[in-house]
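Hi again,

Forgot to attach this to my earlier email, sorry! This is the prediction with zinc ion bound. I've pasted everything inline since the attachment limit keeps bouncing my files.
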Amino acid sequence: MARAKNKKLVNYDLTALDHLVPAIAVTLRELFPLNRSLTGAGVRQTYRILRRIGRFKVQAVPSGKKVFDWTVPPEWMVRAAYIKDAQGKIIIDFKKNNLHLMGYSQPVNRWMSYRQLIKHLHALPTLPGAIPYRTTYYKKDWGFCLSQRQLQHLDRRGRYQVVIDSQLKPGHLLLGDYVQPGPSRQEYLLSTYSCHPSLANDNLSGLVLWAYLLKIVQSTRTRHSYRFTVWPETIGALAYLATHPGLAERLTGGLVIATVGGPGRLGYKQTWQGDSVIDQAVAAACQRLKIKPLLYPFSPSGSDERQLSSPGFRVPVGSITKDKYLEYRYYHTSLDDLNFVKAEYIVKALKLYLATLQELEKETLLHSNFPFGEPHLGKRGLYPTMGGASYGRRDLDTIRWILFYADGRHTMAAIAKKAKLPYSRIRFLAKKLQAKGVISAS
Ligand code: ZN
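Structure tokens for the complex follow:
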């Protein structure tokens, strides 16, 4: 039997999160070495470990399935991958660092010259000690990534044996989810991605924060519904949306949890609307925790907010970050490791995520019960008249603004801000409209 949930999320003590540091550090170390990709054993193992922290279901989508304009790729499996020199010495080995092998590399086993090999090698001259992260999900290819220093040590007249013992075969793409139901009409999405191998900030930090946030939400009672999802970036988001028709319309908003464990400042990437209920909740949470985040206006590059905000879905999705992807030097390189990411940084970001959910819990959205045109105010005694009413002609404007924004996407505070009217008046009149059954608040 499930334990009774007595504690409300809104009352959760944020300082208690500091006690999670040791447990998060253990989870980071356990998950870091796994070879995650769009599919495969590393993702399965990652989900198994995450499910020990918070409960969630895993749905398998078969390879070859069409999802909108995309097709679910085959499953990728790697047993070994290395490059040997003419003396038989292994000089690059996937076993040492999974970033050495380009993600989704095809199988190879042959000798070749330096000139042939170099076409398949990737290094970063600007960060000579780092191994870059590369993938070839949708183009049949293979490659190795190595540091610029390793590259410089290769003998240009040498011959090399390249072995990639990999397999690409029909399998499954895994989508994890959990829905915590709440009594209000609001539902929020909390999403992260599981496709990056040994890279700590992007996005092991996101996976770990997501799992602990899930655990906390599961231990509390909430007013709203929260849908937690984990999937490989892009194709996973599309596969989930394709297999959950009508979901995007029901979602009030969402947050993509990505790159939340770096030493830098907390940041916030706004939703495409910029002033949605999510943006307001993040702003209120920052104010409460006295945080001044780096603000990133929405842009259509980034993570799964790209899919979720696309014209067919248009969910307002933001992202709280701590060293945002593309912004830090070690992004997508082997230096994005557990020296860069720390459990205590993740806890800082977790506090802001949790505080944001607490702000959302306080939000009430207005829904018109007569959304097709204006309701008839006169016949309900709501049309302001000169005598007797507790409100006057001047309130008609305010009532119209409330009705205009009562689309299930706006709080009273948001309406006050947009219409440039006093909040107290909006609240007073919204109550009247509610009492007469013209709008509902949920
Ligand atoms: Zn990435």
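The longest helix spans residues 343-362. Residues 405 and 415 are 7 Å apart (CA to CA).

That should be everything now.

G.
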